[in-house]
Amino acid sequence: MIVIIDYGMGNLRSIYKALKRLEIEAKISANVHDIEAADRLILPGVGHFGRGMQNLRDMGLLEVLTRKVIEEKTPILGICLGMQLFCKSSEEGASEGLGWLNAKTVRFDVQDKSQYKVPHVGWNSLAFRKEQPLFSGLQNQDLFYFVHSYHLVCHEDENVLSSTTYDYPFVSAVQKDNIFGTQFHPEKSRRIGLRILRNFSEGV
Questions:
Q1: Whether residue 80 lies in the annotated active site
Q2: What angle do CA 6, 153, 77 make, to 5 degrees?
Q3: Choice among 71, 155, 187, 202 that is catalytic
Q4: Domains, the chain, ordered by start
Q5: Residue 55 φ/ψ, nearest 5 degrees
Q6: Which of 33, 151, 181, 182 has the fewest CB atoms within 10 Å distance of its CB?
């Protein structure tokens, strides 16, 4: 069972529908007992970093997530804001992040503002940094859907799965042990995005 964590930051239903289309058992929940029983977790998110962390605290989810992910090594996939919350900190608000990755989240600092708008919205490819089962069956020319104003800066390069160029290269996917993250939205990336969700569900 995959539990999609409902912490009030949106984009849950589209992930749930994508998993159901793949005939993968999934549940949207903020219930601690559901999270404890999950085989895999997805932390989605659209919105403000500080508000996301505050919601996790207010809903009493920090302890169970830390136990599941860090102690029990349950696989987790963070999508967009969900991945950013894995960082130690963000330029978006003063809140500390979960701290699972030695990374920070920064706002896009594009130089060519006439060509590159912020937020970054649209389809872009990935430059793979290393082989990983999460990307099984994907090609360099495959396109993924992005919508974000902030991106990760990883201080440990071995955690970077892929980069994407938007005026300059930025981190578009990460992995550290059982912790996975994508800045793009696989649930909105058509057939190729569904492949990533299937790969995650089948045992990365």
A1: yes
A2: 30
A3: 187
A4: 2-201 (3.40.50.880)
A5: -65, -45
A6: 33
How confident is the model over 126-172, as pLDDT tens digits?
Answer: 999 988 999 999 988 899 999 999 999 999 999 999 999 999 999 99
- CA distance linking residue 152 with residue 14, whole number of Å: 23
How much is the pTM? 0.96
Q: What angle do CA 188, 193, 195 make, to 5 degrees?
A: 150
pLDDT digits (tens, 9 = 90+) for 52-63: 999 999 999 999
Residue 103 structure tokens: 């990374």
Is residue 187 part of the annotated active site? The answer reads yes
User: Going by C-beta distance under 8 Å and a sequence separation of 6 or more, which residues neighbour residue 53?
Assistant: 85, 93, 95, 96, 97, 98
